[in-house]
Structures are given as structure tokens and as C-alpha cells.
């Protein structure tokens, strides 16, 4: 994969690269060590593969700088932009992934290996597995 063997990468700038998709599988090798990910100014399409970003940014302890940035994706059938931190995952029929709170990396961040996979059974029921 693109970021294999970059175990200590802390800052990643992918700004203004005409990226439409950034799947979790691409980011998995580095997301546990990253403190800054800049993916602004890309024509990102809102899809389930982007939920890693919201999970990552919500796991940061000092995320004031990142929250000020407006990183968005476009949901074409609605002709609407969504902030990546608040993707309408239910509306997109995504399998919801939520960080477990028991295991963290050395930096104190949840690791992808501790993700819980959740799916909406109904609009009122969320089922999670580890």
C-alpha cells in the first residue's frame, strides 16, 4: 500500500490533489501515528470509506487546529456538501465503525485494530461487533 512502513509519520498533506476517494485501507498503516492530516481542497465524494476521517479527528486530544479547517465532501445526488466530521452515515447506508475505548496506541490514540464494526439493524438499533 501507499503508506506502508511509515510508522512514525505525524503529518500528511494531501491538500489540493484532486482526490475523490481516500479509503481506510490506504490510511490504515499511518492513521495511528498521524497528528495532522490535511485533505482540504479535494473534490471528495461522500462515501462510507471516508468515515475513518471523522473517527480519527474525534479521537484527537488537541484538535482545535483541525476543527477550524472545513474539510468537506460532496453528496452528488443531494447536491450538498457535508463536513467529514459529520457524515450522514445512516443516510448513506454505511456499516458504522466506532473506536473501542479500551486499547490505544503509544500516542494515546485509538488504533484501527480496536475498531468496533456496527450496522444499523433498524433506524433505532445499532449493532456492534469487535
UniProtKB/TrEMBL annotation:
Return the InterPro entries for the record.
Leu-rich_rpt, LGI_related, LRR_dom_sf
Q: What is this protein called?
A: LRRCT domain-containing protein
Amino acid at each position: 500500500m501507499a503508506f506502508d512502513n511509515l510508522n512514525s509519520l505525524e503529518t500528511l498533506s494531501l491538500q489540493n490533489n484532486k482526490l475523490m476517494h481516500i479509503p481506510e485501507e490506504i490510511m490504515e498503516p499511518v492513521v495511528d501515528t498521524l497528528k495532522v492530516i490535511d485533505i482540504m481542497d479535494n473534490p471528495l465524494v461522500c462515501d462510507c470509506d471516508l468515515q475513518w476521517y471523522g473517527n480519527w479527528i474525534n479521537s484527537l486530544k488537541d484538535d482545535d487546529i483541525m476543527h477550524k479547517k472545513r474539510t468537506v465532501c460532496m453528496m452528488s445526488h443531494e447536491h450538498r456538501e457535508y463536513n467529514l466530521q459529520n457524515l450522514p452515515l445512516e443516510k448513506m447506508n454505511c456499516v458504522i465503525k466506532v473506536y473501542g475505548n479500551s486499547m490505544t496506541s503509544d500516542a494515546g490514540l485509538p488504533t484501527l485494530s480496536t475498531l468496533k464494526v456496527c450496522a444499523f439493524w433498524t433506524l433505532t438499533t445499532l449493532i456492534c461487533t469487535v
